[in-house]
Amino acid sequence: MANLKTTEKKTKAQAMGMHTEVLTGRTQQKFFNPDEAENFYYFGTYDVDFNKRTDLDVKDMTAAEANKKIDGLMSEGYGTIVIKNPQGKHSLGVGILNKLNLIFEGSLGYFGMGSCDGPIVRINGRVGWSCAENLMAGKVVIEKNAGSCFGAAIRGGDLICKGSVGARTGIDMKGGTIIIGGDAGAFTGFMMQRGRIIILGDVGINLGDSMYDGTIFVGGEIGSYGSDAVDAELTKSDQDWLKRKLKVAEIGENFDVSKMKKIVAGKKLWNYDNLEPTEKKGAI
Amino acid sequence: MERILPYSLRYEVEYDKKDLLEFSQKIESIPGVEILSMGKSLEVIKDLGNAKMVCDRYNLDKVVGTHAIGHARMATESGVDIKSAHPFWGYPFSDVSVVHNGQLTNYWNNRRALENKGMRFMSECDSELIAVYIAQRMREGATLEEGMKESLSGLDGVFTYFVATKDSLGMAKDTMAAKPLVLYESDDLVAMGSEEIAIRSILPQEIDTYDPFDGEVKVWQI
Known about the structure:
The structure holds two protein chains of two kinds.
Chain A lengths: L11 H4 L33 E9 L5 H13 L2 E7 L16 E5 L11 E7 L13 E6 L15 E4 L12 E7 L13 E6 L15 E4 L10 E4 L3 H13 L12 E5 L11 H7 L1
Parallel strand pairs in A: 1-2, 2-3, 3-4, 4-5, 5-6, 6-7, 7-8, 8-9
Antiparallel strand pairs in A: 9-11, 10-11
Chain B lengths: L1 E4 L2 E3 L10 H8 L22 H8 L29 E2 L6 E9 L2 H10 L11 H12 L4 H11 L2 E9 L2 E6 L8 E4 L4 E4 L2 H5 L16 E5 L1
Antiparallel strand pairs in B: 1-2, 3-4, 4-5, 5-6, 6-9, 7-8
């Protein structure tokens, strides 16, 4: 959480009536104030040097021990860390809030790379359920397959799976981009609110079910559309964006994006305001 | 006869009739006796405790065979007792056993229908329904795969389950894919579990695993 000074002076956003919530109880939300940006920092972030590289064998460690060790290495300035023998352990690499090159030589279990903000991660293996849940920024590349709830509730960053993914990919996502090289399971984009999902292969039943907003691009066959998911026109700018994104993601660079289907919310279920407060300010 | 534990015995008998119902009813007419499983090759072991405790108690690490299924249950739908422990046997069908992760919401409707057809339930655990459902379908002439595919629409709720018979192993996942399953398949080995870490405990080397999709049924012949 931001370490902000309490000030009596109203910020511009407050003056515009955008922060009017009166919060009580145990949770006291503090809004980011750009005027006090110099005081804004994350706990547990480090200045790391990408050229400072080390290996970490986690074979005989618990996930907590491994994560603590990664944290220790970052505090020593290591900017490139190669994790050996992850062997499907759960919750590896969670809560990394700074820039870091992280490479896993093997597969992760559930909740790998959860709640991260900033790292560039390559996983030379498979990931279990809920990979990169709540990702804020950064890039996570999975070389093989991924389990269900891939990229659940992400808010930013790029999440790339070169293989196939399970059900409910991008469930509740609020931003960022998810790219799937293979097929995706049922309920892909379930209740998504913002962001984009690209699937180069086939996708299962109930695609985009109850989606508020956001966009899904599908290259293969669609099992069925979910409630309130509708086709939209694939524009030239969509195609340019898709080409650029697939190239940067090192996946499907030669894929014919002109044949992709674009799916958006019909907005019959929800009356969703998709602007963040900062964007709202611009729109006003 | 072999006494495994004070409350658990293993008998070997010769019985040449196909239908085991009459035979099992005769055995269970003895007061205090209940059959946990009966078959030509499969043996169902049900008990309380964690996997290591049950393994040590029954010397499972010394058992040699072609295939096995197991389950550590988090009890939600019925009591914590031996009869509610997995695997479930499809009474009285020979060599059918099931483990299940999930919850079946049309248990009682299906149970009543199956009981009307003469099938018997040994517990009130919803998972038992799968074993009895498939045993009944196979009794009517369906193959294991056909029975499992029918279960995707016949059973309501969320489920991933495994079935073992004397010569086959199967998996099924409901149409919402609500429960996890990780699968590894090679020419001579199939390993699957809710978590990859379980597969890694026997295959520590880097292997290609994947999640079966919604509504997927797979059967391997042993």
